[in-house]
Specification:
The radius of gyration is 18 Å and the shape is globular. By secondary structure, it is of the alpha/beta class. The strands form two sheets. The protein has a seven-stranded mixed beta sheet. Strands 8-9-10-11-12 form a five-stranded mixed beta sheet, with no helix packed on it. The protein has a single domain, classed as Metallo-beta-lactamase, Chain A (4-Layer Sandwich).
């Protein structure tokens, strides 16, 4: 696929996955629909692509939309502008971070973000600026939604960033993880909280799951109905191995293949993301847990 092209994958009769190709990774949005109603998980990285998703669903006869923002990063809220008259759901922490970083987002990444040693989060590498539209429904722990007879459980879980939520469909055993799970490997944001992320990934692994639909993944996997539960184990393996080697000699020379299992399909561009992960982990643990970087950090 060419950069900027959109593919629409039909996961089943009532789930679509919208895939936008980018230079190093992809953007994604999951849409559940029944009758004239739809629940949209994440609204892409910009206003234009958010509109493409909504227009597609309108052409299918959808008139009633509910949006779920899985966390505050730009590639999950970019199209909120087109849902201003609809309900937008997120965690309370997600809304707080959007309020805190409104100027940064609306000026295309020009600004500063407050940091603490154990909660490093940045939104550099924004490729465009767009108006921030806040979620109007927020929650702290759990929230249940229904799409006709389909139950969707939303719960806040501290993986990737503190404000993340996942969507779980218990009857269908489907997980919509946002960036708590990324393929082929996670982009480490809160480097000081990796042990917390691993602990919570293990809790996520206790759910009865048959299908996982992540926003960032291998295009062919969506043709096969998404990922299976081994995806969680592979992520735990990657993060655990990084922590176990962080203080070893030649840590930065570790190849991508040394940290992923054979079940993972590596995307070539993620070699750079893997090296960034190693660099910020080494820097954090070699500076007495004080994170300080002269490099521009990525956030997706």
């Amino acid at each position: 696929m060419k950069v900027g092209e959109m593919a629409v994958k039909r996961i089943n009769d009532w789930i679509y996955f919208f895939y936008i190709e980018a230079a190093d990774f992809n953007y994604g949005s999951v849409v559940l629909h029944k009758g004239k109603k739809a629940i949209v998980f994440d609204t892409m990285e910009c206003v234009g692509n958010g509109k493409r998703v909504k227009d597609y669903m309108i052409d299918l006869g959808i008139v009633d939309f509910t949006v779920v923002n899985t966390h505050w990063h730009f590639d999950h809220i970019g199209g909120n502008f087109f849902y201003q008259d609809d309900n937008i759901i997120a965690t309370s922490e997600c809304r707080r971070r959007l309020e805190q970083n409104k100027k940064l987002i609306e000026t295309g990444g020009k600004g500063e973000i407050g940091r603490s040693p154990s909660d490093v989060d940045t939104i550099a590498f924004i490729e465009t600026s767009f108006p921030v539209v806040y979620p109007n429904i927020t929650f702290n722990s759990r929230l249940e939604l229904y799409l006709e007879d389909i139950k969707i459980e939303l719960f806040n879980i501290h993986i990737h960033t503190r404000d993340c939520l996942v969507g779980y469909l218990p009857q269908e055993k489907i997980l919509i993880p946002g960036d708590t799970l990324e393929a082929p490997l996670p982009l480490i944001i809160e480097v000081g909280n990796i042990p917390v992320h691993i602990k919570n990934l293990k809790k996520l692994n206790e759910l009865d799951i048959k299908m996982i639909i992540p926003p960032h993944g291998n295009l062919e996997r969506y043709d096969q109905g998404g990922y299976d539960k081994s995806f969680i184990g592979n992520t735990i393996y990657y993060l655990t191995k990084i922590l176990s080697r962080a203080n070893k000699p030649n840590f930065l020379e570790g190849s991508l293949e040394e940290y992923i299992t054979q079940a993972v399909e590596p995307r070539e561009s993620y070699r750079g993301i893997h090296q960034d992960n190693l660099a910020i982990v080494q820097q954090y643990y070699s500076n007495n847990n004080l994170y300080c970087s002269k490099k521009k950090q990525r956030s997706y």
